[in-house]
Amino acid sequence: MNRVVLGLSYDGHDFEGWQTQPHGRTVQDRLSKAIEAIAHDTVSIVCAGRTDTGVHARQQVVHFDSAVERPLTAWVKGVNNGLPPTISVKGAKLLDPEFHARFSAVSRTYRYYFYSSPVRDPFKRFMTWVHYPLDLQAMRSASACLLGTHDFSAFRASQCQAASPVRTLHAMNLFEETDHCYFEIQGNAFLHHMVRNLMGSLMEVGLGRQPVNWLKQVLESKNRSLAAKTYPAQGLSLWKIEYPEQYGIQDLFS
After folding, report:
1. Which CATH number fits domain 2-104: 3.30.930.10, 1.10.357.20, 1.10.150.20, 3.30.70.580?
2. Residues 52, 96, 135, 179: which is the catalytic one?
3. For residue 8, what is the enclosing H or E element?
4. I need a surface site. Which of 55, 102, 219, 230 has the fewest CB within 10 A?
5. Of the candidates 158, 166, 233, 228, which has an alpha carbon nearest to the alpha carbon of residue 197?
6. Is 132 marked as a binding-site residue?
7. Measured distance CA(91)–CA(205) in Å, rounded
8. pLDDT tens track for 44-70
9. pLDDT single digits (tens) 64-110
10. Whether 65 is catalytic
């Protein structure tokens, strides 16, 4: 069996998340059909991180096993021929069976894009619109308490299936561009809706509705009902999956 590893990018607007569903309107469903057309067999695809409905991926990594011999170009161009324009295989490689798209990853990086403006901009469809001005420095200060290892139950969706709510955030930075901003968040793993729930609470601070130290109190409470609402999906992108250098995963996206 060959372990085939693919690097993907996709626009999540038209999909109900990554994971396969009976109705077939997911990224995994569309990718499986395109791969099976090349493999002439069924495949079981494993991804680095499952994205929710409407969430995008700049760098998603998947693997599957296949007994057929195909040139790497078939796993890229051939599979892309069977995909909609909103999903693209960026690269392919063969790796030893010890590689696992999910369990070999050492960290994951998400970005949440947003902009503040009196009116909505239709060209910013990958960002979340905030009607009122934001205190970005207050948001930076509030986010500092999230770094490190914590119980993130206060920012965990009720349907989350993770065995433990404990996660480690390695970095969380707010960047300002000319007409938009984004948080870049790197962690070992993330709970269901965790980033969007964090953004909802950070926005409460940025809008002046809550003080800077409120976020730390919510985190320590481990109580989801004390945190703010889940923020929209369109601003969130799975930005990068980090692996040990020996696997050369970044080559898939170069």
Report:
1. 3.30.70.580
2. 52
3. strand 2-10
4. 102
5. 228
6. no
7. 41
8. 999 999 999 999 999 999 999 999 999
9. 999 999 999 999 999 999 999 999 999 999 999 999 999 999 999 99
10. no
